[in-house]
């Protein structure tokens, strides 16, 4: 990366033994970021044993901002994302799962939400745009109920593998987090809430993919430990930030629960979970939102749907 080069977006992809799925998902990510000058893609090989790193390097050839970061041994998804965030240079930092379940056409929506919040979460439980098996849906609902009751995180979907952060806030949050497994999201979001960061939930298109390394019996106990670890932040907050935890602040109309093929950027739902000292509408961003407006990414159908109103913003 050239010294002082401006990087609008960094996309971090944690990958553990993803040699079979990366050829189907990584080209789409590379094509998407290739339309955004200066953007970078960082694939973090989490100690894979199937040649994941070599395949990722081959697939990223031709993308100036593409690179592979190798961890010496399998450390967990949380550790892989944290390593990628630490190495990222972007004004905005996004992480997305390697399985290709998330639709990268929704990236402009997450970036647009960062104009009003420090954290933007892709959500499969609002908007009616997720395709999941009944078992996966029930498991997600159950884990969500646990996080709400134990960690007081009033968020519809903490576990969707498609999240965006303002760059400096991402580095601070992940430097403070200690969870290394699949439950790291809960700790990161709990830290964000305790620091008064605004959190936006954005409906995304998502389709369940076969395969993957997550195993319910093996990984669920560790995720519950991560939830208990996140409880330590319940009594913490930035001095002067004293709004009760879990307060919901809606800054946009309710989300339509029906299916949608394109959502205008101007209609991105921003449902913030925060502890503001003053009303969110009058609060200055914690870091300057210097990232380019998503409407400039003309190849995206979602950007085209934004219309003149979004372009004028």
Q: Main sheet?
A: 7 strands, mixed
Tell me the series of helices and strands, N- to C-terminal: EHEHEHEHEEHEHHEEHEEHH
Total E-strand runs: 11
Mean pLDDT across residues: 74
List low-confidence stretches. 242-313
Count of individual helical segments = 10
> What would the principal axes of the Cα set say about the shape?
globular
End-to-end C-alpha gap:
31 Å
Q: Could you give the order of strands across the largest sheet?
A: 3-2-1-4-7-5-8
Oligomer: single chain
Strand content: 15-25%
Structural class estimated from helices and strands: alpha/beta
Radius of gyration: 18 Å
What is the helix content?
25-40%
How would you describe this protein?
This protein has 313 residues and is an alpha/beta fold. It is 33% helix and 16% strand. It contains 10 helices and 11 strands. The longest helix has 17 residues, at 134-150. The chain starts with 8 loop residues before the first strand and ends with a helix.
At a glance:
With 313 residues, the chain is α/β, with parallel strands linked by helices. It contains ten helices and eleven strands.
Question: Can you lay out the helices and strands and say which pair or pack?
Answer:
Elements: E1 9-15, H1 22-34, E2 40-46, H2 52-59, E3 66-71, H3 77-87, E4 92-96, H4 107-113, E5 119-123, E6 130-131, H5 134-150, E7 162-166, H6 167-176, H7 184-194, E8 199-203, E9 206-207, H8 216-230, E10 248-250, E11 271-273, H9 301-305, H10 307-312
Parallel strand pairs: 1-2, 1-4, 2-3, 5-8, 6-9
Antiparallel strand pairs: 4-7, 5-7, 10-11
């Amino acid at each position: 990366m050239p010294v002082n080069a401006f990087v609008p977006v960094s996309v971090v992809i944690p990958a553990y033994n993803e040699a079979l799925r990366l050829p189907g998902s990584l080209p789409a990510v590379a094509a998407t970021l290739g339309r955004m000058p200066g953007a970078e893609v960082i694939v973090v090989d989490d100690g894979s044993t199937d040649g994941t790193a070599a395949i990722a390097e081959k697939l990223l050839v031709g993308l100036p901002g593409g690179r592979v970061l190798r961890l010496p041994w399998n450390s967990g998804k949380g550790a892989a994302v944290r390593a990628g965030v630490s190495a990222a240079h972007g004004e905005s930092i996004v992480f997305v799962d390697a399985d290709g379940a998330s639709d990268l056409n929704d990236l402009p929506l997450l970036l647009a939400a960062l104009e009003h919040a420090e954290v933007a979460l892709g959500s499969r439980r609002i908007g009616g745009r997720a395709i999941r098996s009944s078992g996966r849906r029930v498991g997600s609902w159950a884990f969500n109920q646990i996080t709400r009751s134990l960690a007081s995180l009033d968020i519809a979907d903490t576990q969707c593998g498609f999240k965006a952060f303002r760059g400096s806030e991402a580095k601070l949050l992940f430097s403070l987090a200690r969870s290394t497994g699949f439950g790291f999201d809960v700790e990161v979001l709990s830290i964000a809430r305790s620091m008064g960061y605004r959190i936006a939930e954005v409906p995304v298109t998502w389709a369940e993919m076969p395969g993957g390394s997550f195993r319910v019996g093996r990984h669920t106990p560790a995720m519950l430990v991560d939830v208990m670890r996140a409880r330590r932040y319940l009594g913490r907050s930035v001095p002067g930030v004293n709004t009760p935890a879990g307060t919901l602040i809606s800054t946009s109309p309710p989300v339509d629960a029906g299916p949608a093929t394109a959502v205008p950027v101007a209609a991105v739902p921003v449902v913030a979970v925060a502890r503001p000292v003053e009303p969110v509408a009058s609060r200055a961003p914690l870091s300057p939102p210097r990232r380019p407006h998503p409407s400039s990414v003309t190849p995206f159908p979602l950007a085209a749907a934004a219309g003149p109103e979004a372009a004028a913003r």
